[in-house]
Fold this protein.
Amino acid sequence: MRLVVDLNKCQGYAQCAFLAPDVFSMHGEEALVYNPRAEEEQREKLARAVAACPVQAITADGLHGAGAGSDEAARESSDAH
């Protein structure tokens, strides 16, 4: 998964660091440090962290992709029959 944090929006509330500490951490009181390429095992924690950001500064490409892709493939398969 690819993460992007808009550091201009980020206000340092640290909800993401609390919910996904293996991906996000605070350097000092206001500087956020994060891994832009999060591991698949972090999916659930990342979903919570993204949802908890009070200023919606975090986006995650591929966060909901696995389920959506599977549903789409199932629809295409049933349409072909």
